[in-house]
Design a protein that fits this description.
Keywords: Chaperone, Isomerase, Membrane, Periplasm, Rotamase, Signal, Transmembrane, Transmembrane helix. GO terms for molecular function: isomerase activity. This protein is α+β, with helices and mostly antiparallel strands. About 45% of the residues lie in helices and about 20% in strands. It has a domain of about 100 residues: Chitinase A, domain 3, CATH 3.10.50. The protein has a 4-stranded antiparallel beta sheet with strand order 6-5-8-7. The protein has a 4-stranded antiparallel beta sheet with strand order 10-9-12-11, covered by helices on one side. A 3-stranded antiparallel beta sheet has the order 4-3-13.
Length: about 475
């Protein structure tokens, strides 16, 4: 077992060690700003000495603006303990969410997301400010390295390509780096102010290991969650916002991205992943829903004490029992193409003929001859785990004996295919976490629970002005 469960509502947190981003943003020192101001003054003196011209233009020294303000004017949306969050900051962060939804958001939905984005930026400001007050810093080299890693691992792009993509959608590298800076700074604050004061006894770990062994063979769930807190006064608004987020997720939005951006549980930084847990570790409302969910399914919003949750079933398994989906398979893929002008009846007839020929192949050794006769293409993979296959194919493949094939699948446009099982190596049973791993996990859970209380204190003491 890995992970427990928790929010601000008193449960243990549910994930292993948080995989926070690393990074920061450039800040001009007071000396640099003073030098910049002197340089501007010198330029102005030269311009006046040359008759007030500016690049060949003749302009008056006393300017009175008669039109509207510049479109580049950065109007403050909030001021957090003196630090400004502008409308541009909100728009650039919001652009990432809009892009993830391919622009399929109504004006009302965008406005709701804008308010949530502002709240997230306020929290980031508080985290960065607390780190600064404790003299916790992030150097530029680490920031650049983290941003580059984020580009390759998350976006699968080079840094210049990611920069161009962000600019294209109306965001910016600075917006993403600000979030990276806040996450890393906050983790360092927790390591200094929280982690040293969290203790886990050996007796606790031994007792948990005993319970884990006693639970061998029972169901365990890896659950993702987006938790939105609500008070009695805000319940209706938060419920509507949760429903909008759920609808956007069903239309293809990234659960991990939304959890990181809008979730309020302690697992926010790892995309809402609560880790492996048993139903008894969830609130009753969530346990009732999760019990019947299959991997890949979502449910919600579920109302519970303190707010609403959207659940995503990442995976299921048996405690300390080998998972059949970890078996390594050797497969052959046989595909036939179909002419575009075939009728549905003709497609069905060709599919039946194909299925009969494959079943008569006599196993993987006879596939080549059958493929040649049918004009089929053959591919193979000798090292693929069952869980890496598309979910609809996993169970049919695992039910096959060596030499058997799946029923045909595909379409007239993409061709008709079957997979034939040529070999299978089953995974060994898991021994579960060892003593040190379990102790580290419990420590992490307690650190993250206290982190939520820490952030609540910062919010309560903050001076925030809105425009």
């Amino acid at each position: 077992m890995q992970g427990g469960y928790g929010h601000d509502r008193g449960h243990g947190r549910g994930n292993g060690r948080a995989k926070g981003l690393r990074g920061g943003k450039l800040a001009l020192t007071g000396v640099a700003l003073a030098g910049f101001a002197l340089a501007l003054g010198a330029v102005a003196d030269v311009a006046r000495a040359q008759g007030g011209g500016a690049g060949g233009l003749t302009l008056p020294q006393n300017i009175t603006m008669l039109g509207t303000a510049s479109p580049n004017f950065r109007r403050a949306t909030a001021v957090v303990n003196g630090d400004v969050i502008t409308g541009t900051d909100v728009n650039q962060r919001l652009a990432l969410i809009i892009a993830a939804n391919q622009g399929r958001l109504s004006p009302a939905e965008i406005e709701q997301l804008r308010m949530q984005t502002l709240r997230n930026l306020i929290d980031e400001s508080l985290q960065i400010q607390e780190a600064k007050s404790l003299e916790v810093s992030v150097d530029e080299a680490e920031m650049d390295a983290t941003y580059a890693r984020f580009a390759t691992e998350t976006f699968r792009q080079t840094v210049p390509a990611l920069d161009a993509y962000l600019a294209k959608i109306g965001s910016s590298p600075a917006s993403l780096k600000r979030q990276i800076r806040a996450e890393l700074s906050w983790q360092r604050v927790l390591r200094r102010n929280v982690q040293p004061f969290v203790n886990v006894s050996q007796e606790e770990v031994k007792e948990l290991l005993q319970r884990l062994n006693a639970a061998k063979g029972t169901d365990e769930y890896r659950v993702g969650e987006i938790f939105l807190s609500a008070t009695p006064e805000s319940r209706q608004i938060v419920s509507e916002n949760a429903r909008r987020i759920y609808d956007q997720l069903r239309e293809g939005a990234s659960f991990v991205a939304y959890a990181r951006q809008y979730g309020e549980s302690s697992a926010k930084s790892v995309g809402g992943d609560l880790g492996w847990l048993r139903l008894g570790q969830l609130p009753n409302e969530l346990a009732t829903v999760a019990r019947d969910m299959q991997p890949g399914q979502m449910a919600g919003p579920v109302e519970l004490r303190g707010g609403f949750s959207i659940l995503y079933m990442i995976d299921r398994r048996k405690v300390l029992t080998a998972d059949p989906r970890d078996a390594v398979l050797s497969l052959k893929q046989i595909t036939i193409s179909l002419p575009a002008n075939l009728t549905d009846a003709q497609v069905q007839a060709r599919t039946a003929e194909f299925d009969k020929a494959i079943k008569g192949a006599g196993g993987c050794g006879g596939v080549g001859a059958v493929a040649a006769r049918l004009g089929a293409q053959v591919g193979s993979n000798d090292q693929i785990r069952a869980r890496d296959l598309p979910a609809p194919l996993q169970q049919p493949i695992l039910s096959l004996a060596v030499g058997q094939a799946t029923p045909p699948f595909g379409s007239k446009e993409d061709g008709i295919q079957v997979l034939m099982l040529c070999g299978r190596d089953d995974a060994a049973a898991s021994s579960g976490p060892n003593f040190d791993q379990l102790m580290s996990q419990i420590e992490d859970e307690r650190v993250n629970k206290r982190a939520q209380a820490y952030l609540r204190d910062l919010r309560r003491d903050a001076i925030i002005e809105y425009n």
